[in-house]
């Protein structure tokens, strides 16, 4: 197996990482990865971008947003590629958020049982459609419509 060059074309990065060209350009636009340009304005990525991409894809796979990933990468000195220790530290910091998401999904699943085969999507009785009864604090009826109705507009 031949050794990878220090700088990689977008095609080489796509092939090695399994990340499509379009996603690579998107990540670059979002500041998640960086490239240099050749005299002919072609992208060249440093070889360590492959580890950074593995970090990004793994974080996404566990449900983290690109904003979460960007924030995590921004904590690294000189925007360096995450090390094993970085991954360990950052993944621990995400555990509480992931636990909260899992709990929320469990609650949704439990509420779904009453909706199966129903289809009413009632604001009054459907626990999924009106999750946590979001307008309850504003009183009965349709509080968002009250100013328009009362003001005659
Ligand atoms: S759809 Fe009828 S209770 Fe949820």
Automatic annotation (TrEMBL):
Name a GO molecular-function annotation: DNA-binding transcription factor activity
What are the record keywords, sorted? 2Fe-2S, DNA-binding, Iron, Iron-sulfur, Metal-binding, Transcription, Transcription regulation
Q: InterPro entries given for it?
A: DNA-bd_dom_put_sf (IPR009061), MerR-type_HTH_dom (IPR000551), MerR_fam (IPR047057), Redox-sen_tscrpt-act_SoxR (IPR010211), Tscrpt_reg_MerR_DNA-bd (IPR015358)
Name any Gene Ontology BP term: response to oxidative stress
Using the record's annotation, list all stretches that form the HTH merR-type domain: 7-75
Recorded protein name is Redox-sensitive transcriptional activator SoxR
Organism, per UniProt?
Answer: Saccharothrix coeruleofusca
